[in-house]
Amino acid sequence: MSAHPLLRLAPLFRQSLGLLTVGVAGLIVGAALNLVGPWLIAQAIDVDLATGDRDGLIEKAGLFALILLTNLTVVYGSRLALEVSAQRAMLSLKRQLFDHLVDHDLAFHDRQSSGRLITRVQGDTEALRVLFTLVILAFPADLLLFLGMFGVLWWTHPTIAAICFGVMPPYVLLFLLFRRISPRRFLALRTVRAQLTGTLTEYLRAMVMLRQFGRHHWANARAKELDQEVLHLDIAANLQPVWYFNSVVAVRTLGIVALLWVGAGLVSDGVLTVGVLVMGLGYLRQMFHPLMRLSHQLTTIERARAAGTRIAEILDAPRSITDGPKAWPGLRDGLRLEEVGFHYTEGTPVLRGVDLHVPAGQHIGIVGATGSGKSTVLNLLLRFRDPTSGRVTLDGVDLRELKISALRQKIGLVLQDVHLFAGTVLENLGGDADKSARALAVVGVEIGLDQTLSDGGSNLSRGERQLLTFARALVNDPEVLVLDEATSAIDPATEARVQAALERVMAGRTVVTVAHRLVTVRDCDRIVVLGDGRVLEQGRHDELMHVDGAYAALHRLQTVREVV
Question: Which of 224, 265, 403, 497 pairs with 439 at a CA distance of 20 to 30 A?
């Protein structure tokens, strides 16, 4: 049986165990000091006031003020220590979550929106921080306060103790009732709120496209629909602590009334002193401080419980792509797809029994209509995904047996979609200045390594951004280059520049190029034509044109379009 999601987070506090101990100890000392205050007041009333001892009153007043000041200092220090401990733990959790998400399979990210994952890393960890600092770590001190008050009152007068602690059963009943009906609503609220965050993130990122095609009204309507759903769930969820809080206040009020009623009678009968009655009232008010705090934080507790569950679901999400034990052996024979089948959705195959050999040192072009499986082949070569059937091998070794980091270091990838990060050119190229400078020189980009790229490289031309992705692929001197429509968005002058650079970097390397534009693969050693998830044809350009099959049909179609 797996541990509760919140218990699984306990190891995060090991790094701050000293601070954690100081913080909890400080709260316990503060609870003990809270026990002394009402007892001093009782002594002042029953002894000093009764005997007219002015010096005794002054002494106890000074002692009471000292206790208050000490309690304030101790509790402040302990709260500070607990806050630092919780912040460090949540920072570790955020790093763990981020590392886990970055390293997870693409199939996992297909099922999760980026906005929802951001909510997990930021919002859910904050809810957990509040839970730890205000509830869980304060529990030992609250328990000591309850036991101490009960012990003092029972030793002083059992009847007063029974009245003070008689409020506990109704409170426990209310708490259990709230805990029973509220979690489902908070979980539903958390789910829809994460969905709204993800939707807004995606719409804002696509704002230019939405306006270009006049779809911003549609996006606005969808966002309003989700926002309305969040509103209704938020109201329903937050009304739960309202009735609970008011019920707790009612129980406390009834307890005070009962204590005054019974206590006044006992005082008049001479079996109870006024000081003990006042001490009982003080303890009863103090007793409700942690209960009222818990009442205020129940919404946070429920959100934190839901957050812990959802974080555990992310951390427990199984990986389909796992690391192998073998190092990169070096490419001698080549890469092979052996009877490879693949589907993204069960029952909808994308590749069907594909056999393909990519010999070492050759340049292979892969073409075909949209949806024919070209990009899927690249995903399999880089082990972003594993085949549903068959296997992909390197010199006879299944890629699933290789270390993923070594595999991807030895295979350089350039995509059609350019993605650069905010930061310097050097940071975008991996951080090694010598390797980065050599890669830029090969590609022929005249740009400083310390130049800052803003907003994904928006301060560069599209051609310059594409050239940087080429340099990034070359930094680790890969044995295999994979190009996915890498020159489709470059102007002719820049494309000629890139092609000249590619001729230099492809020498002695194995290259796989996926292209829609057949001119890109015209000079390849072999062209593979995919269709309906199968290899339809393969050969050189002239051979395929002579066959007059699928490749020739694609060539005529593109020629007609270019003429038009």
Answer: 403
